[in-house]
Amino acid sequence: MRKPQIAFFDFACCEGCQLTVLQLEEQLLDVLEHVDVVTWREAMTEESSDYDIAFCEGSIARNEDIGRIERIRDQAKVLVTLGSCASIGCHNALKNKWEMEEMLDLVYGEEGKHFDTVPARPISAVVDVDYQTYGCPVSIGEFVEVVKHILTGQQYDPPNQPVCVECKLADNQCVYEKGEVCLGPITRCGCGAICTTYGEACQGCRGMMASANPRAALRALTRGDANPIMRKVIEAHGLTEQEIFEKIRVYNNWPQLDFEELPVNDD
Predict the structure, then answer these.
(1) CATH fold group of domain 5-151
(2) Mean pLDDT for each 10-residue chunk of the chain (267 residues)?
(3) Domain boundaries in the chain?
(4) Angle at the Cα of 135 (from 134 to 136), degrees rounded to 5?
(5) Reported pTM
């Protein structure tokens, strides 16, 4: 029986997610026992238009990207978004706060007229996707888990709890107790709390979990009647609502995050 044929593709991204997959090292050999990779620009010169599973990294950011992802979708039996650029738009969608002509002028000046660009969006905003992975770059463990689910014909439901859950499981000291601002309480887990485990605050690269309350996070980091730990963070950083707003938006720009439209929830 023929092994499933796998292809990797990239759109607007740094291609760091594909490099992360290469870091599977010996685990990658285990994966290759069950699949054949037929297209992967980062790892091989050969390529094929005959594939069953497509892993796509990056956001849709040009008109030509739309037709290309549609062709990939037509060919692939299974389409997987690889990392946060592909799954939630990520950094690329930061440009959406400007009109495209204005943005091109800001970045490229007179040469901007030569570039094709459209508002950046995740792949799922253009075609149907079967599996999604998150992270900037993608989590190695999640990639392997998704591959297992694909090969066994199972649905994969991405984790939908805050990073704080994995911090507790790792017995980490809360970053807020160190006086730092962390987006773990509203960020989708699944990374193993890798940043906080090594002493860094969560920057929210996996996007917000479905039940996240960013308005509450904003209030907790700016109001004067916060609990003692939060009050110390506020005093140390003096963050304004706009600064917190911008911090949360770094990875969460699709659809546009507008605190004025978010329901007030004091719970």
Answers:
(1) Rossmann fold (3.40.50)
(2) 94 96 88 94 94 98 97 98 97 92 93 93 97 96 95 95 96 88 94 94 94 84 72 78 85 78 51
(3) 5-151, 163-261
(4) 140
(5) 0.90
